[in-house]
Amino acid sequence: MFNLVRNENMKIYRRVRTWILVGLLVAFVLFINIMSWQFDGKESQGDGWRTVLQQEKEHRNEVLKKPGLEAEDRTFNLQRIAVIDYHLERDIRTEDGSIWDGVNGSAQLAILISVFTIIIAGDIVAGEFASGTIKQLLIRPANRLKILISKYVASLMFGILLLFALFVVSFLANGVLFGFGHLDLPLIEVKEGVIVENNMFLNLLQTYMLNGVSTILYVTMAFMISSAFRSSTMAIGFSIAALFAGNILLEALQRFDWSKYLLFANTDLTQYLSGQPYQSGMTLSFSIGVLAIYFVAFNLISWLMFTRRDVTS
Amino acid sequence: MMSTSEPIISLRNVTKRIGRSTIIDDLTFDVPQGEIFGFLGPNGAGKTTTIRMIVGLMTTTNGQILIKGKNIKTEFEQAIQHVGAIVENPEMYKYLTGYLNLVHYARMVPGVTKERIDEVVKLVKLESRIHDKVKKYSLGMRQRLGVAQALLHQPSLLILDEPTNGLDPAGIRELRDYLRQLTRFGGITVIVSSHLLSEMELMCDRVAILQGGKLVDVKPIQYFTQGSGQAQTYRIETQQPELVMAALSRMDGIEEVKLGVEGIVELTTERERIPEILAELMQHSVRIYGVETVRRSLEDGFLELTGGKQIV
Ligand SMILES: Nc1ncnc2c1ncn2[C@@H]1O[C@H](COP(=O)(O)OP(=O)(O)O)[C@@H](O)[C@H]1O
Ligand SMILES: [Mg+2]
């Protein structure tokens, strides 16, 4: 089994294509970070953050004076002002203008990790059928299930590599741009009406994990299509389409109660952090349950289709 | 060469149906150890399908396949470990070097050492190019790399599907010698398929003739080339064809004498008569430069078996 995974890794990392994907991710991270440093982060650097916060506070006070402000907006603005005061009074700088600004911002690029991992996972089984190498692969004393699992594990490992690359590159790039100080900065948030200080690093880890859940589900879906239909194009195309079109579809279907059972409605677990789930009545454990069912179903289909069917390519 | 031990591989009533069509219909045969066995049949006869079933890429609809007594369906891993194969084309990972392709397959079988990899590389004479990417290989080199990966784990049964595709005559001859060597000294059993009788003749001990998914017959290769053992045609090369013709026409036991072009005389007789005929010709002091057997046309032998249906 260990050797099988090694083989799959060799086939992934000895290809130029793979390194183009890694390179693209690195390029994207650098580009986004330099842009946001240039147009946004720079002014908060050093002691600039105080001025920026003052300006924001004034702006929010203006907003609050407007007549007919909705209660929700009002609460939000008041909370922001409270947080700003907290920062200013205790002289705790904001993440803006520090290394954390870009590192946290880069976590939004996790969608690229999903896309690139889908590309690898969507091709990892179907590609062997397309090239005909599947025949040589399956006539060895290793059963098909083990081969399938090793391919799945290798696909997920590629996702982890990309996540690692994302973190390291964004950390180094923002370190160079903003300096490596302020690593122990707390994250100041309003939780249930109270201002709390949270660990910035744990917060980042949480973002990565929640994004990771979505990545795993879409990658598993690509892997299933790859094994079942033996077509890379179909696996990659369909999974990426689902990744992007999911939200649009959800908006159209929101009025139907059953739409909460759709995969897309549950992959974004951050909806429970903001307290605004897709449909009222959905809970974190509901979503986890739905995702678990999809996860098992996808893998079951992969297994049945890959191990039972004749190889005719 | 034939051994009395249990066959390396045996097929019993093997049938494959896909949808409504029966692609392979009730194949039964055994291949003993050390034999080079051929599947002969036109394109679409079912050669590749049979091979796919033997190596477990396709399941049988009916019947069973035993390799060294192990059922490929129910004891896949034990059965397949004795087999090395190329199914259809020798497809390798083009973006890897030849060597890494071998490393890849070596990792899938316990006990294949680095030394063994080097050994098979040498065996197929790819030493100088083994560290090049496979995409730079010629078809012949890919074929050889295919053979190398099939031999890595020292299988008892080597299966090559249309191995002569893309090989020139010299390559085919080399392959044949090589297979002979394997069966003679390595005790390996070989199954090859081809749609060309002339290639089968070069390589095989016995052939199974497939047509439309059915086994027409299994025959030793001599059947096709020597017929049922009576008269054969011989070609004599001389500078005095008229003299030879005259001498031959006075002899007994000669069925037919024909004058060919450029000093060739063809005669049809029994093999046993040849030494006497030559001795007699010598007495007429004719100069003979060569005598060769004119093979019965391979196709003739084939047509006889299949009842007039043309191959290819
Ligand atoms: N997957 C399949 N589905 C339907 N028919 C098939 C399939 N594979 C092969 N066949 C048919 O089976 C027959 C035998 O094919 P094949 O074994 O490739 O022949 P050969 O190798 O002797 O040329 C052909 O008529 C082919 O069309
Ligand atoms: Mg074929």
From TrEMBL, chain A:
Organism: Cohnella lupini
Chain segments annotated as transmembrane: 20-39, 109-131, 152-180, 200-223, 235-253, 284-306
GO cellular component: plasma membrane
UniProtKB keywords: Membrane, Transmembrane, Transmembrane helix
GO molecular function annotation: ABC-type transporter activity
Any Pfam family: ABC2_membrane_2
Top-rank taxon, per record: Bacteria
Protein name from the UniProt record: ABC-2 type transport system permease protein
TrEMBL record, chain B:
UniProt KW keywords: ATP-binding, Nucleotide-binding, Transport
PROSITE patterns to which the protein is assigned, alphabetical: ABC_TRANSPORTER_1, ABC_TRANSPORTER_2
Transmembrane segments: none
Keyword Transcription regulation: no
Gene3D superfamilies hit by this protein: P-loop containing nucleotide triphosphate hydrolases
Protein family (similarity comment): Belongs to the ABC transporter superfamily.
Protein name: ABC-2 type transport system ATP-binding protein
Organism expressing this protein natively: Cohnella lupini
